[in-house]
Amino acid sequence: MVTKENSVSRRDFLKLASIGGAGVLVGSTGLGTSLYALNHFGRDNQHSKNKVNFYGKHQSGIVTDVQKHVYFVVLELSTDDVQQVKKMFQDWTTQSVKLMNGDVLAEISKNTLLPSVDTGEAVGLDASRLTLTYGISAEFFKKLGIEHLKPKDFVDLPHFPKDQLNPKYTGGHIFIQACSDDPQVNFHAVRNLVRASRDIVSMKWSQTGFNSYDETKKTPDTPRNLFSFKDGTGNPKFKDTETLDRFVFIDQDWAKNGSYLVVRRIQMHIETWDRTSLEDQERTFGRHRDSGAPIGMKKEYDEIDIKSKNDKGELNIPEDSHVHLAKKANTTIMRRSFSYSDGINEATGTFDAGLLFVSFQKSPEQFIKLQSMMGRVDRLNEYITHRGSGVFLAFPGIKEGGYIGEALFNRL
Ligand code: HEM
């Protein structure tokens, strides 16, 4: 495993490289080899800023404060050799620790005749609160012939009314979710992870996204989505471990402390939305746009009462509004979504923009319940189209000295 001695922060890398120029460094490009020079100069990762701990009961990137950027990628396996796949996750573990610490992936080599082990575009950048989250699809179990280890709960999503899924944004065996405050840090992480395993994985689909908020505030505001509404208010609180244990984390068998991830690439029809009155927009969600408060209330976190009525005796939060329907489904999920903007649709001259909806839940059933409730009648449907989809099992957290997916591979 990675130790302090063989790590060097990306911030210190260039300083060290210049010393290396004086002929001190050992010329090797292998990952994880011993580092004479780093030990010699006492450099380690402790000065890297904005680090999130890789190890823990749960993987990072689930109940970690949401960062500003995501790079979400879905991979396909080209091998059915379980041992090779296990080795890949072990290698990714070593790399993930370094990436999340803001360290370079390997020591500086003086051998310019070889490609560098770390591709280098994150040199000089700190850890940027990078989190890396990993998981597998139901197809993964099939591909490797280990379906007996697939938890019973793990079902694929059914076709929902109004789904217009594009095969371009579906399928795959493994997801990696890289979130940080710097898009280049995310890209660097995904690029290097995929590069290390090119012999057995290929990229099926990916999506980048962003969230904006004033990070200088002690408690940053809830980010707004591209329909300008605060998105994430109704989530369980991270401190509310009882709710998280009840609704977000798996409590059974090898997958204990993992979570099911649902991803939906949802196009938002910005032009139609922009022609809609503010009143209609607010009635679509059931919340006020600027304050984020439930309609009829003043503050964002005021309790929602879907039965409350206005002076005219009408429901404040219309029955077909997004929030009313979500409440009616009578379940809870942890949403951790990002907006995306992918240029324009050339055929229509409209924005190709929307939400990379990501939610974590104890069972895919919770999402199915919500989406079935909303799919037919949600007012929001007039303004959105679901284009991509996936459901994955995000592995349990990793103990120091352990590796990603260990709980599963130990059962083989
Ligand atoms: C582009 C698509 C979507 C947009 C723009 C959107 C936006 C919003 C907004 C603005 C809120 C109110 C604030 C908040 O509590 O976060 C909300 C709440 C919520 N949404 Fe969505 N949403 C979308 C898709 C979905 C989907 C696909 C699901 C699940 C199937 C979902 C589930 C929920 C839930 C559970 C709540 C919380 C309700 C509560 O208990 O207060 N949303 N959404």
UniProtKB/TrEMBL annotation:
This enzyme catalyses: heme b + 2 H(+) = protoporphyrin IX + Fe(2+)
Pfam families recorded for this chain?
A: Dyp_perox_C, Dyp_perox_N
Q: Which GO terms describe its biological process?
A: iron import into cell
Cofactor(s) the record lists: heme b
Cofactor binding remark: Binds 1 heme b (iron(II)-protoporphyrin IX) group non-covalently per subunit.
| Keywords recorded for this protein, A-Z | Heme, Iron, Lyase, Membrane, Metal-binding, Oxidoreductase, Peroxidase, Signal, Transmembrane, Transmembrane helix
Metal-binding is among the record's keywords: yes
Transmembrane helix keyword on record: yes
Give Gene Ontology CC terms: cell envelope; cytosol
Q: Which GO terms describe its molecular function?
A: ferrochelatase activity; heme binding; metal ion binding; peroxidase activity
Which PROSITE patterns does the entry link to? DYP_PEROXIDASE (PS51404), TAT (PS51318)
- Provide the Dyp-type peroxidase N-terminal domain boundaries: 59-211
Recorded hits in SUPFAM superfamilies, A to Z, give:
Dimeric alpha+beta barrel
Coiled coil spans: none
Its annotated compartments are: Cell envelope
Q: Which residues form the Dyp-type peroxidase C-terminal domain?
A: 222-397
Function of the molecule: Involved in the recovery of exogenous heme iron. Extracts iron from heme while preserving the protoporphyrin ring intact.
The family assignment reads: Belongs to the DyP-type peroxidase family.
User: What is the protein's name according to its record?
Assistant: Deferrochelatase
Q: Tell me which species this is from.
A: Macrococcus brunensis
Query: The organism's lineage?
Result: Bacteria, Bacillati, Bacillota, Bacilli, Bacillales
